């Protein structure tokens, strides 16, 4: 299916499916994962084969941090190269997936707790396309982004996500994209190429996060600032952590929990990812 026919197919409202789409939180890491054939990118490719083919993908990316809540509502979102200092091959990448203005409007109407602006300026940032191009390389599935309101606390985002639950019944793959542990200032860049290297506090928090997620105990994760010094080292700023709130807020009572790409790199970054359902 070409991009235009995909766009035409998905411009109308989506019917409910017989199955419930899983929900993902994906540690996206370096933009280079978007063009490299490595363990992380290969697992993204495998994941797409393990889950039902979505009717659309809605991504909450750490890299769209806004005042208020916005959703991309254009027919064809542009590919955003929101980084610097990388090879020209990375800047040359285009991911020409269609959008879905009708789904954007429907999603905005579902979010009763927020006034959602239909956005025609943003596009797909590297928190989205570096993952999705490995999962769906033909770019024939509509992709939308929902922004993160930086003025709101984690509980707000967790609760807002619950209002998106009905999209799972319509075949929409909802994905939070960030990193659970993300402290760039403390990263050991000289050890970036080691398959697994983490500071004690990073390993501790990664294990703690996984334990709480596996137990379905989300309250401490929402109140991460009360989890002590290690948590504050793991999450010095919230933008890469908040996408996890959207994934957890969408968990259903029967959803199984599993983890993938469970690696700590450069001391202070985790690629640990979550599948619900």
TrEMBL record:
UniProt-listed SUPFAM superfamilies: LigB-like
Location of the Extradiol ring-cleavage dioxygenase class III enzyme subunit B domain: 37-254
Family matches, as Pfam families: LigB (PF02900)
GO MF annotations in UniProt: ferrous iron binding; stizolobate synthase activity; zinc ion binding
CDD domains given in the database record: 45_DOPA_Dioxygenase (cd07363)
Keyword tags: Dioxygenase, Metal-binding, Oxidoreductase, Zinc
InterPro entries: Extradiol_dOase_DODA, Xdiol_dOase_suB
Cofactor requirement: Zn(2+)
Keyword Cell membrane: no
EC number in record: 1.13.11.29
Top-level class of the enzyme under EC nomenclature: oxidoreductase
Family from the record: Belongs to the DODA-type extradiol aromatic ring-opening dioxygenase family.
Protein known as: 4,5-DOPA dioxygenase extradiol
